[in-house]
Every structure is written in C-alpha cells, then in structure tokens.
Amino acid sequence: MIETTAAETSGVVLSSGPQADLFSQIAGNPSLSASLWLNIALAGLSILLFIYMGRNIDDPRAQLIFVATMMVPLVSISSYTGLVSGLTVSMISVPYPGGGSEEVLIMWGRYLTWTLSTPMILIALGLLAGSNLTKIFTAVVTDIGMCITGLAAAMTTSSVLLRWFWYVISCAFFVAVLYILLVEWPADAEIAGTDEIFSTLKLLTVTLWLGYPIFWALGSEGLAALTTTQTSWAYSILDIGAKYFFAYLLLRWVTDHEGVIGNLASGSLGSATPADD
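Predicted structure:
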C-alpha cells in the first residue's frame, strides 16, 4: 500500500534541493519577501492600467512608446517572480575589502530585469525626445553593457579587486548613458517640442538610476553596510519609482498629446526635427 501524506492529498507538492532551500529562506524572511511581492503586485496593476490607457492610441510612434513602456512591468513581474521563487538567486561567498568573505544571498535575477527593462525605458525616452536611431542604439547598447558588467561584479568571487574593477567598468558605461540623457536628448526634445515632459522624466530617471550604483556599493554585494533585506528594499523602492511611476507619467502625457508625438519626424526614427508640412 502506498501511503498518502497530508501535503499530497491537499494538492501541495513539497520539493527539496538548493532552489527549494532558497525559496524557504526568502519566504521565511517576511520583510525580504514583502520587498519582492510588492513589486509583483505593482507590476501586475501597472500592466492592466497601461493596457487600459493605451486602448485608443492610433499613432504608430505613440504606439511604439506604449509597447516599449509596457515591456517594463511585463519584464519586472517575470523577474520578481523568479526572485521570490528562488529561481534567480544564489548563495555566493562575497570577498570584502580589507580581507575576509561572507556567504551572501545574491539576487542576480535583478540584473536580468535591468538588462531587459532599462533599454525599454531608454527607447521610450528617445522616441519621446524625437531622437535619431543612432543615439537610441548607442543608449541601449551602453545601458546593456552597464547591466551585464554589473552582473559580473556581483558574481565575481575570485578577487575583490576584480569584483570592484567590474563595478568601475559598469559605472563607466553608466556615465555614457547619463551623457545621452543629460546632454544629447534634451537638445533633441527642445527641437521636437517635448522638452517639458522630457525634463521631468529625465530628472526622475537620472536621480533614481544614480541610486543603484550607490546602493550596490553600500549593500550586501559591495561593502555590506546594508543587510541583504535592506539592500533588497532599496532596489525595490528604486524600481517602483524608476519603472511604474515613470511609466505612468510618460504614458499619461503621451495619451494626452498623441498629436505632438505623431508630428515627430512623421512617426519615423530618423530625425529629431519635426516633419515638414
């Protein structure tokens, strides 16, 4: 006779192994778990809201901005589900300056989120500014480089110097992104007539994005001045502002000014100059 456990009769399948252990570790920390579930909930609500907001958008360029922006919560809800399930986290022996190391829960799945979602934010901003394809491509490529080298910094355990060297490389890519956001695109947005909303979104984006390398350095992946839970909350709060709040402000403006978007280079990506009549 095969005995049936209470878990099996209730339809709950219990598993064991490294991923299950990580899942249990996260679930057993209410504050850490809440920092992840909050983003899952907000991402889901944002997806529904943005679909509703974009239901009547007809202009191709405005639609492209909506699609790019919609990808942000879609990627986030997938990524945060990976984190909370233990799929995209690992226990890593992190070497610290001054000697010594410590086993730390590294949520490397966040870097997957940023690699896929932040380029979408930049594409939306570039389209809003009426920028050309070359500048948008440059922003996206340098942004991906920033995220991938940030992941390398988080995952390097062989040498504390190499770990921080990766961090410096990531920051160098970030400087290139900041140059485009602060110098190139504001000039394009002024020509396109979208400079007011672009300035608001630029300030929001730059301010919040600066928080990521700061919290990396202070957090459990860097100097360990913050605990894993505190680091997770810092990243989660930054994500809420830099993704969902940013996306809402952008899409609300696009919805109210679809005609302005439609006049940007006749819906093409080739010029920052409004189309001729």
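Summary: The longest strand covers residues 90-95.
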